[in-house]
Amino acid sequence: MAALLFNSLSLLREVCSIITAHIRLVLLGLTSAPTQHLVLTGADIGARVVLIVGDIHGCYDELLDLVAAAKEAAHGAEIYLVCGGDMLNKGPKSLEVLLYLKDLMRQGKAAAVKGNHEEAILQQYSNLCKDSNYSLPKKYQYLKDFSDEDFAFLQQLPYSISIPHLNALVVHAGLLPGIPLHRQSLYNLCQMRNVENAVSLPWGQVATAIRKPTHGVPWASTWKGPQHVYFGHDCRRGLQQLPMATGLDTGCVYGKTLTGVLFHNMKIKPKLLSVTAKRQYYFGKQAEPS
Ligand SMILES: [Mn+2]
């Protein structure tokens, strides 16, 4: 009886968090994106070789190094770049990363999901739109160089990218196990790190997503597929290699490495590639709230 009550409360808590998250997205104008769950087909990618990259955080030079390394590993084949969110903020060249991605996307050679930092940028933009006297916080001063079109570009990014022919699913942060993609909270997709209270019930699995990595267990350790998930957002844990999930945030902006996964040959396992950061760009706490 107590267990049933506890499970019902967990479910209620999860439903409340989904509703709150949705209201938040509506307030930010983020529900206007054409799709929250993008599917990339073989026709979209063509003869290109897919490279999925972890948190870039404005490390433009390292991104170019990683793409060049991928191209070399793929024997000169053209790269299709998939970014796992948090492309901007914290690092030195956010605008350069944004313009590079926009250009590749215009040519049909890239896709990206939103991370919590893209959401935070859009929150700043929303503040600017609502109040012409709003002054950007110090760490967001660089947004003064962004155009309305740049913000619109960020706004239309999805929260997940599925690549069925690679059995790959890309999200920024994580997923709750046992719940179909379209029923996952968009907030969790770009914010969660852990899960707790995972219980299997007759009508499905219940679990609670946690943003702080101090309670519960890493969500990726509970993920059983069917898709292999590539994610970022967790530079404290660094590279995570689990049977059905790979964590790619290796803390480039903290002076560590920028990591990607290259699908250069369908017959062999995807290959991990990384380049070393030229220096440490950000000295704040790791995994701090945006
Ligand atoms: Mn993040």
From TrEMBL:
It comes from the Eukaryota. Residues 1-17 form the signal peptide. GO terms for cellular component: cytoplasm. GO terms for biological process: polyphosphate catabolic process. InterPro entries: Ap4A_hydrolase, Calcineurin-like_PHP, Metallo-depent_PP-like. GO terms for molecular function: endopolyphosphatase activity; phosphatase activity. The keyword Cytoplasm does not apply. Residues 50-197 form the Calcineurin-like phosphoesterase domain. Keywords: Signal. This is Bis(5'-nucleosyl)-tetraphosphatase, symmetrical. It comes from Plakobranchus ocellatus. The lineage of its organism: Eukaryota, Metazoa, Spiralia, Lophotrochozoa, Mollusca.
